[in-house]
């Protein structure tokens, strides 16, 4: 095991990411050490690099969360039955966000720590690059269901005619929301740019609608009523989605109490609808409850459905070469310019 490793750090808020060398950490109880082979970029990485938001407790910081690589060490007292053998290929959420900003846990480096609850085997039929798209996107999508008080073991039948509206389905979170909704037995009504419609249908959407269409709300309502579907749950994945989502639910929820999970942070004075609960998509702030939730997501739903081939990498990959320094910075700049229906992945 190396004593030091290359890492891309944020020296101070708002400064460029800089390549340096950090001591390679030893995992504490309930942690593992991963040699990273690929990482994926998320909008939160860009916001933290450029604006320091969400807040970074201290600098220098290591950003990032989505990784794949080799399991190299397991901390003491970590449940051995919960992890594959050392040397195995794994998928992990290696984020400092829930670790008080600890730079040993960020993804933008060659070796990183991760809590064991968020580490699962990478299936043999997936590359490191394919596996890296999963962690934060799938966790956010699945947290959306539990935020709406929908258990992850929910399995509706076609006869139940349970529908769900996913607004922003071509994004990372949206595409996983479509996949997981399909697994849970929902009939999925999704919005995205027209060029992505066939793709999100291939992931499990029943019908797709162009969010740019000025008549999109009416078209969704008509489709739901023609299909005889009960639609009173919705995931507003992207900014600006809440009002049109509520406009649809007003006409489709009937006598049911509607529930909406909003993945962007809810702003003061946000739109509301009578007899409708609207919640920000976020796991528990209480560590023990959150760790249990994360373990249920990764060791339960994700591991099981990956093994059965019911989950696939989404959205489509956009590989950014150049390694830690050039690849990550270039990839974040491309995120800033705007990426549609793609997930940027950097091989390390």
TrEMBL record:
Pfam families: ADH_N (PF08240), ADH_zinc_N (PF00107). Keywords: Oxidoreductase. Residues 1-26 are annotated as: Disordered. InterPro entries: ADH-like_C, ADH-like_N, ER, GroES-like_sf, NAD(P)-bd_dom_sf, Trans-enoyl_RdTase-like. It comes from the Eukaryota. One of its GO terms (molecular function) is oxidoreductase activity, acting on NAD(P)H. Residues 14-346 form the Enoyl reductase (ER) domain. Belongs to the zinc-containing alcohol dehydrogenase family. This is Chaperonin 10-like protein. It comes from Podospora fimiseda. The lineage of its organism: Eukaryota, Fungi, Dikarya, Ascomycota, Pezizomycotina.
């Amino acid at each position: 095991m190396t004593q030091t490793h290359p890492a891309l750090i944020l020296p101070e808020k708002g400064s460029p990411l800089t390549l340096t060398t950090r001591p390679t950490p030893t995992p504490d109880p309930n942690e593992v050490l991963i040699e990273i082979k690929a990482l994926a970029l998320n909008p939160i990485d860009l916001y933290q690099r450029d604006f320091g938001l969400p807040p970074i407790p201290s600098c220098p910081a290591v950003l990032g969360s989505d990784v794949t690589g080799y399991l190299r060490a397991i901390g003491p007292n970590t449940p051995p039955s919960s992890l594959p053998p050392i040397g195995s290929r794994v998928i992990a959420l290696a984020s400092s966000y829930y670790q008080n900003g600890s730079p040993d846990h960020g993804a933008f480096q060659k070796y990183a720590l991760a809590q064991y609850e968020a580490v699962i085997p990478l299936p043999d039929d997936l590359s490191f690059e394919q596996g890296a798209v999963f962690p934060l996107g799938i966790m956010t999508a699945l947290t959306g269901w539990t935020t709406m008080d929908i258990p992850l073991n929910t399995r509706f039948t076609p006869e139940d005619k349970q529908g769900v509206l996913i607004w922003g389905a071509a994004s990372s979170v949206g595409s996983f929301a479509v996949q997981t909704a399909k697994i849970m037995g929902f009939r999925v009504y999704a919005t995205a740019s027209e060029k992505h419609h066939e793709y999100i249908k291939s992931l499990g959407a029943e019908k797709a609608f162009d969010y740019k269409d000025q008549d999109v709300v009416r078209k969704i309502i008509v489709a739901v009523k023609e299909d005889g579907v009960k639609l009173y749950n919705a995931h507003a994945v992207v900014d600006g989605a809440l009002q049109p989502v509520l406009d649809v639910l007003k006409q489709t929820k009937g006598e049911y109490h509607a529930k909406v999970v909003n993945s962007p942070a809810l702003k003061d004075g946000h739109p509301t609808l009578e007899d409708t609960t609207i919640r920000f998509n976020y796991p528990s702030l209480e560590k023990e409850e959150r760790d249990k939730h994360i373990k249920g997501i990764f060791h339960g739903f994700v591991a099981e459905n990956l093994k059965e081939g019911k989950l696939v990498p989404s959205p489509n990959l956009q590989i950014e070469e150049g390694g830690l320094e050039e690849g990550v910075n270039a990839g974040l700049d491309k995120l800033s310019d705007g990426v549609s229906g793609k997930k940027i992945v950097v091989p390390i």
